[in-house]
Amino acid sequence: MKIESNNIPAGLVKKTTSEKSVASEKEDKVTQDPKQTQTRMMQWFSRAGIFTSSKTSLDQEPAKIAARHQFIKAQRKIKNLENILAIALKYSQEQSSTEEIDPDWFFSFVEMAEDINAPAMQELWGKIFSVEFGTPGSFSLRTLDTLKKLTHKDAKIFKHAVGLSSRKKNENSLTILLGYHRQAHFFALLRGAKSAHLNLSKYGLTYTNLLSLMDMGLIFSSELETGELATNNSIDYRCAGETFSLQAKQSGISLNYYKFTSTGTELARLVNGKSKSSYFEDLKNLLSQGFVVN
Q: pTM of the prediction?
């Protein structure tokens, strides 16, 4: 159906100054100099040993092209390993184990590490080798395989999750506490059954981020719940650099949380996740409704 322009209110046709500005910025992004874009593309491919010239590939000797590509590829891998070794030496422990690392682990590590190009990720791989050399058996090959698949963006999400994590006393595994649930037994129904949870997106960890961590095998794929917690026993946790204890005020109360996998727990040792004090304070305030928090 054709719409006559005369019937459209003038206010809807005329663009505001800000709208024009936004449209102009979009046009600027779209109309960037094609030559600059092409130059940037060629710079990236040159890192893989692919160059353009006035001659086509058919005019050049295939053996020379392949040899050049392999040579530059080998150079890049060697440079990556050199960077990772330098980082490992920087973090090397003063007192290391006299036990030798597993040769199979080491050469698997090398094969994976040589393809790590991002400096931030090389930092993690250097730390891994330093820790493994000092304490053989600290990192499994499965953990290395997971780490190899992580991008810099993935690592940032994981680091954020570590900053929200809690560790139960005398346990190695990490959790992200969400809140609590009061079971709906008879007496609870009289008082009103209740569940209380924090929204993690408020602290920078969105549901999409959680799904990504699940897909990467760093946290388990569903929210978990403890069994009913005894009212005569307290549980000690450490979160955001502080220790606190929880004791259920009444029966039928359990904690809700996300749990890191063994791979996630191993990798968390390498990450200095920035603790969120706002999350810790909100968590304590929320849990105080169902627990004695000290």
A: 0.74
